[in-house]
């Protein structure tokens, strides 16, 4: 009898600890997708320049793409973007990753996006990603209009879904 009570108390304590951990992580993972504007994000470009998303103002839309250099989804999307750049050339892509600049540069070169004017590659540290956007998982894609107002969040964003979103929201014709 005494043993059953001890085991029950032990299980209740474990359950309580697990619930605390679950709710603490859940709150941390909540996305701050209620942005009205493209957040000001500092990053280091593949050319080792410190840049900020505030410094770009000449496009019909802005795509904030948080990626991993070894992510298979990201690789497929990079290939798609290069092959369909004629549909995407009016959009500024901020291709940001927490990976090393060497890996980011290799990614940009391997998928030929570094040769295109509307792509900026850079490194952002994981803490900055979480503090600014509340993001834990990569890839994630945020779309903003020409005034840098938030339009839409996409987990996977090929050319078709990006163009469709911008067309549907009336951001481009």
Q: What is the element layout, followed by pairings?
A:
Blueprint: H1 2-29, E1 42-45, E2 50-52, E3 61-66, H2 72-83, H3 85-88, E4 91-97, H4 101-110, E5 119-123, H5 126-133, E6 140-145, E7 150-154, H6 159-168
Parallel strand pairs: 3-4, 4-5
Antiparallel strand pairs: 1-2, 1-5, 3-6, 6-7
Structural commentary:
By secondary structure, the chain is of the alpha/beta class. It has two domains: 30 residues; 137 residues, Glutaredoxin (3-Layer(aba) Sandwich), CATH 3.40.30.10. It is 42% helix and 21% strand.
Short description:
By secondary structure, the chain is an alpha/beta fold. The protein has six helices and seven strands; from the N terminus they run H-E-E-E-H-H-E-H-E-H-E-E-H. It has two domains: 30 residues; 137 residues, Glutaredoxin (3-Layer(aba) Sandwich).
Rg, Cα atoms, Å: 20 Å
Structural class: alpha/beta
The total beta strand count reads 7
How many domain regions? 2
> Judging from the principal axes of the Cα atoms, what is the shape?
elongated
**Helical percentage:** 40-55%
CATH topology of the largest domain: Glutaredoxin
**Strand adjacency order, main sheet:** 2-1-5-4-3-6-7
Poorly predicted runs: 27-34
How much of the sequence lies in strands comes to: 15-25%
Q: Can you tell me the CATH superfamily of the largest domain?
A: Glutaredoxin
